[in-house]
Queue: 2 jobs
Job 1
Amino acid sequence: MKISLATTLSFLILALASNSLLVLGTSSVPEPLLDVHGNKVESTLQYYIVSAIWGAGGGGVSLHGGRNGYCPLDVIQLPSDMQNGIELTLSPYNNSTIVRESTDLNLRFSVLLSGRDYCNEQPLWKVDNYDAASGKWFITTGGLDGHPGAETLLNWFKLEKIGNFPGIYKIVHCPSVCESCVKLCHNVGRSFEDGVRRLVLVRDDEPAFPVVFIPATERSTSV
Ligand SMILES: *[C@@H]1O[C@H](CO)[C@@H](O)[C@H](O)[C@H]1NC(C)=O
Ligand SMILES: *[C@@H]1O[C@H](CO)[C@@H](O)[C@H](O)[C@H]1NC(C)=O
C-alpha cells in the first residue's frame, strides 16, 4: 500500500515535471529584438548598431582597413558618440522578417564598396581566423550570405539582452546553424589596436560591447 502510494506520487511528480517542461518548450520562441524606439527590428530595414553607453562609450560600428593590408575590412567602433557609423541589415538564418534574440543572424553593412574603399568582398561580418600574434579573434568582413551550416559557421552572430534593460543587447558569436560542429562561443567586445577600436571575441571575464539599434530610416507610421 505504502509502496503503491509512493509509486503513484512519483508518477504524479514525473507527469507534473514533464508537463512544465512542455510548457517551457512551447513558450521558448525568443523575444523580438527592439530598436531604440521600442519597435520590432525587421530584416527588411536598415539600422545603425551604436554603443548603448553615451559619451565615453563611443559611437556606432563601421568599417576600417584590415590589420594585414587594407582588405578585408575589419569591423570597428567609431570613437565619438556623434558618429552612428554605417547602417546594416540583420538577416535571420531562416529568412524570417522579424528579427529575434538568441537567433543566428547575418550582419551586413549596406554599402557599395567602391573607389579607395573597394575590397572584393561582401561587407558581411565574420569571425576572422585566429590571430596568433595578438591572441585574438577579430571581426572582419567577407562572409557569405545565408547558407546556414558548417561552411558558414564563422558568419553568424546573435543578439542577447543584457540584464533586464529593454532594447540593450550584446553581440554574441555562438552559432547554432551546425549541431555537429565544434564551434566558438563568445561575446563580442572591443580591442584597441593602433588607436582603433576593433571588434573581437572576448573572454567571459572581459566586457561585452553593449549596443542599441537605431533605425536608419524612420518609418512613416512611427509614433
Ligand atoms: C532562405 O532564402 C534562401 C535564398 O532565397 C533560400 O535558398 C533558403 O532555402 C531559405 N531558407 C529557409 C529556411 O527558408
Ligand atoms: C524562423 O524561426 C522562428 C523561430 O526562431 C519562427 O518563429 C519563424 O516563424 C521562422 N520563420 C520562417 C520564415 O521560417
Job 2
Amino acid sequence: MNTIERNLQDILASIPKDVILVAVSKTKPISELMQAYNTGQRVFGENKIQEMTEKWEQMPKDISWHMIGHVQTNKVKYMAPFVDLIHAVDSIKLLKEIDKQAKKNNRVINCLLQIKIAEEESKFGLDKEDAISILGSEELKNLTNVHIQGLMGMATFTNDQHQIKSEFEALSAFFEHLKPKYPYLKTLSIGMSSDYKIAIDCGSTMVRIGSSIFGVRNYS
Ligand SMILES: *Cc1c(COP(=O)(O)O)cnc(C)c1O
C-alpha cells in the first residue's frame, strides 16, 4: 500500500460515513491524484481554476471537481462546463456570473456561501447579515441555474483548539438557524487537515483535506 492510499484509509476510518471527504490536491501532480483515484476517491478540491481545468481535461470523467479557492468573476467561464461545487461564493455578483455561465452550459451549478468566521482580518467571506440578505433576495430567485446547497468556513490559523472550536460552533449554529427557513441547505463545509476532527464534532458534513493525504505542499 502506498502512502497516499494509507493516508486516505486512515482518514476515511476516522470520519463518519456520511461526511464527504474532499481530497485537496492543489499543487500536486496528476500521478498523485491518480493514486487517490485508484483507491476509490472521486471528490477532488482545487483552488486555482486553470490548474483544476488542466486536471479535469486529463483525468477520468467520473470525478467530482470542487473549487475551494477564491473565485474571480472573469474566470468562472473556464470551470462552468464541469465544476461540481464552488465552495467560496461571497457575493451576489459572483452568483450572477455563475448563473450566466451555468445557463450557457445547460447546467445547474452547486454553490456554498463562504461565511467569515475567523477572528483574523480576512479578505474573503460574507458576514452573516450579508448571507441572510442574499438568501432572502429577489435577485437569487431569478438565478435558476445556481443552487446554494450550504455554507463554508475557515477557522483562524492558530494552534488554539478552543478558538477553532468556538468559530466552528458559531458557524454550525448559524447553519442550523438557517435550515428551517432554507431546507435546501444541506452542506456544512468546515475542517482541514489540522482541524477536521474538531469540525466533525461541530457538525461538519464535508471536510477539505490536503496535506494529510498528499503530504506537505511547497507552495500554496
Ligand atoms: C488548501 C486548502 C485546504 C486544505 O488544507 P490542508 O491543511 O492541506 O488540509 C482546505 N480548504 C481550503 C479553502 C484550502 O485552500
